[in-house]
Amino acid sequence: MSSALLAKIITEEHANFVSFLALLDEEYEVLLRGQVEALTPLLVKLETVASNLSEFARQREALVGQHNNVNPADMVNWIKANAGPDSSHLLGLWRTLIDIAEKTRLKHLANGSLIETLARNNTHAIQVLAAASQINSLYGPDGKLQGFSSFQLRGQA
Fold it and tell me: What is the structure's pLDDT at 137?
């Protein structure tokens, strides 16, 4: 196992988390502004970076000889046991990676919550509009009051 290779993978994984977090921040702002047209290209970017993150995790897990999700504490123990003189450097890199991953997770949850709120509000608005369309409107398509066809105003202006 190469400590230098693990350091490279963790560093690149961290850089991708920084990109992912920036994209999540952008997504949040787009959602708040209601710029639906901006979501599609943003989601493509998010998907690309998420795919990269999955690949880095796979590489890291393969490098340390595990082929399942590596528990952060297990990774710390593995670094301490196997990285030799590079262990303090790798532990620092690992901790920064865990920190940015947690920030990203929390931002992702916040965005999900915002999406749920917006969806609920849109559903409510649609229900209100649908109910309103069922009520006879005051004016018909000809612009005259509905239900008052014999009603005429008399008098002079």
Answer: 63
- Helices 39-63 and 3-33: crossing angle in degrees, nearest 10, is 160
Joined together, the tokens standing for residue 95 give 């901790």
Does the pLDDT value for residue 88 go beyond 60? yes
Q: How far is CA 76 from CA 49, 56, 73, 142, 150, in A?
A: 25, 17, 5, 76, 86
Mention the CATH class of domain 3-133: mainly alpha
**What is the rounded (10 degree) CA torsion for 120, 124, 125, 129?**
150
Domain ranges of the chain: 3-133
CA-to-CA distance for 147 and 137, rounded, in angstroms? 10
> For 95-132, how does the pLDDT look when each residue is reduced to its tens digit (9 = 90+)?
999 999 999 999 999 999 999 998 888 887 777 777 76
Token representation of residue 34? 């209601």
Write b or e for each residue in 47-83: b if 16 or more Cβ atoms lie within 10 A of its Cβ, otherwise e.
eebeebbeebeebbbebbeeeeeeeeeebbebbeeeb
Mean pLDDT computed over 14-35: 96
Which whole number is the average pLDDT over 25-39?
93
